[in-house]
Design a protein that fits this description.
The chain is of the alpha/beta class. Helix 6 runs parallel beside helix 7, helix 20 packs across helix 21 and helix 23 crosses helix 24. About 5% of the residues have low confidence.
Length: 616
């Protein structure tokens, strides 16, 4: 398996050794900092239980130790263990250093005697007593048996050197820094190989057991076949039914196709075939992908459906049908939240421009300096900071469709003049271009203010007003058509219940709260109704039943119940309501928060009341 690293991955190496060994290893580890992460544990290992915690916490790829420590760990663990072994050079160096302090040297060596010792005895003119151990306990016993000799020096592993130091006897470590480097390099190589092996095993396991793609492998004669779990499940192999696979497994073609189609268990599949060579023989690997039927093209409808019961909206619908067939502009009036964009979309769907896009622009959100670029687009380099390659404007996006200009009353006068020229000529020029382009589209504008009054006030161009006002549609507020509340609420609740996965049905909820909804004036119209309904659905999520939904509605929307008290249809009651607001404003010296708290109103509802009496 080939390994491709996009980023260097440091392997993890856990090191066990006694004091002198640990100190020597520590001196060389910084040289390998970029290749591995190390954890060094200073100890002689007596049992696996002693090191389990270190292994579980550090999760090493390989373990490094020496002597009997390494031998024990290799026999007790599944992890690879690399032993720091002393070389002939290490022994020569250690005995040379020991000969400088004593003519009598005791060398306690692991596992086997060194062939260089007899030669060194003669060369250095020393006596070397070599003892062999295989366990840490044997090393301790040999030290105790030999330490009584006068004027001796010890050569051995870190355990022996540590014991000698405790008894004030000179000692010399068998290992060298160079041996440590070689051992760490070997450990890093083994760890990387182990990592690749483990990843290969994980990939093979995933392909065989977890992959959702049916895969099988066959030899050239179809005598040896291996299926993964997905193939057994989806191709019916567990039932012994491989007849549909015969044409792939026992292919009679000279060259097996690398891609094609097949039918298995009544299901149509695409297949892809790869060939790998093993010991000079081909193995064919097939991956199968279920064919999906082409979806039928369905015309996308509006995001919200227009529902109503009132004759007032029926009249609006009739106007939509009448005005949509003409390419002339349509102007829609209505308070905020009455659904002006929904009516505009209805005009789009009923018009000859329905195949084009519906493109909406909120005129109140476009700064004057960006208006032309947004509406007409710009060419590459038209101005500093312009998008490279240019950008299509909204008019070009709405070509053969509908351009919806919402809140048209908020356009500044200089913006109005630029829009007017386009409406007159039906041509536009992108910024930075010398060429005018024609536009074939329908323009629908909407306003919550009477444009005729704005013309009188000098805030809206009269010529633009006449250009827009070819056909106009007035959407009545929700308070003037209470018979629509039930159907609108039903539609909104159905969507909210699905979104919130509520346990209650539309009928269960509406039965409890419909009277309160119908009796409210809805100054925020359909948008306010939807907000109240969403608060209701969110608030009853944890309720076991709807017995307290009235109180919940009163808590989350107290304005509904305040208006219910005063709404008798008589001017006297409305006057009394406004008197209460005025008295409270005087009492709390115009502090709207205190007034709202005293009257039990929300800040929004209080603002609407003050608007009626010009105190906002």
């Amino acid at each position: 398996m080939n390994k491709v690293n996009t980023k260097s991955q440091a392997v993890r190496i856990l090191i066990f050794g006694h004091k002198e060994f640990s100190q020597l290893m520590t001196s060389v580890l910084p040289e390998f900092g970029g290749q591995a992460k190390f954890k060094l544990f200073d100890a002689i290992v007596g049992s696996v239980a002693e090191i389990d915690e270190h292994i579980n916490n550090f999760l090493p790829d390989v373990i490094v130790s020496a002597g009997s420590n390494a031998a024990y760990l290799r026999s007790a663990l599944d992890l690879p263990v690399v032993s720091l072994d002393c070389s002939a050079t290490d022994i020569i160096s250690a005995l040379q250093r020991a000969a400088q302090v004593s003519r009598k040297i005791v060398m306690i060596n692991f596992a086997e005697a060194s062939p260089v010792v007899p030669v060194l005895e003669a060369a250095l003119n020393v006596t070397v007593q070599e003892e062999i151990y295989t366990t840490a306990e044997q090393a301790r016993e040999l030290f105790q048996l030999t330490r009584q000799q006068p004027n001796i020096a010890f050569v051995g592993a870190s355990l022996v050197c540590g014991l000698a130091t405790q008894h004030g006897i000179p000692s010399f470590l068998l290992y060298s820094a160079d041996s440590c480097r070689k051992t760490i390099s070997t450990a890093i190589q083994i760890a990387n190989e182990q990592l690749v092996t483990n990843q290969g095993v994980a990939l093979t396991n995933w392909l065989l057991k977890q992959s959702k793609t049916p895969i099988f492998m066959t030899d050239e004669d179809g005598q040896s076949i291996i299926f993964n779990q997905a193939a057994r499940r989806d191709l019916g192999v567990d039932n012994g039914n491989c007849s549909d696979l015969e044409s792939l497994i026992h292919s009679e073609e000279i060259t097996r196709p690398t891609d094609g189609e097949c039918r298995i268990q009544g299901i149509d599949w695409w297949f892809h075939q790869d060939c790998v060579m093993t010991q000079g023989k081909p193995l064919y690997i097939y991956q199968l992908y279920r064919k999906k039927p082409k979806p039928k093209k369905v015309k996308v409808s509006s995001r919200h459906k227009l529902v109503f019961e009132s004759s007032a909206i029926q009249k609006v619908v009739q106007q939509v049908k009448a005005f949509s067939s003409s390419p002339s502009n349509v102007l829609i009036y209505g308070e905020s939240g009455t659904g002006k964009e929904l009516i505009a979309r209805s005009v789009h769907e009923a018009s000859p421009f329905s195949e084009g896009h519906f493109v909406a622009l909120n005129c109140s959100s476009i700064p004057t300096e960006l208006f032309e670029g947004e509406l007409f687009g710009h060419r590459d380099g038209a101005y500093t900071g312009a998008k490279r390659g240019g950008r299509k404007g909204l008019i070009e996006e709405a070509q053969y469709g509908v351009l919806f200009l919402d809140e048209i009353s908020e356009l500044a006068l200089d913006q109005q003049s630029k829009l007017l020229r386009f409406l007159q000529e039906r041509h536009y020029r992108p910024l930075g271009s010398n060429e005018e382009k024609p536009a074939y589209l329908k323009v629908v504008a909407a306003s919550n203010k009477e444009l005729k009054q704005l013309v009188v006030e000098g805030k809206f161009r009269e010529d633009l007003f006449f250009r827009l006002n070819v056909f106009n549609i007035h959407i009545p507020p929700l308070r003037d058509r209470p018979e629509d509340i039930s159907s609108i609420a039903e539609q909104k609740l159905l969507r909210l219940i699905t979104s919130y996965q509520s346990q209650f049905t539309v009928n269960e909820i509406l039965t409890e709260i419909l009277d309160d909804l119908v009796s409210y004036a809805w100054p925020g119209n359909v948008r306010e109704l939807e907000n109240v309904l969403e608060r209701v659905i969110a608030s009853i999520q944890m309720a076991e039943d709807l017995s307290k939904i009235k109180q919940i509605l009163r808590d989350i929307s107290p304005e509904l119940f305040l208006v219910t008290v005063f709404k008798t249809g008589q001017a006297l009651v409305r006057k009394k309501e406004l008197e209460l607001v005025l008295n409270a404003m005087h009492r709390f010296q115009g502090d709207k928060q205190q007034v709202a708290d005293y009257l039990g109103l929300s800040q929004t509802t209080l603002w609407r009341r003050l608007k009626h009496i010009n105190l906002k």
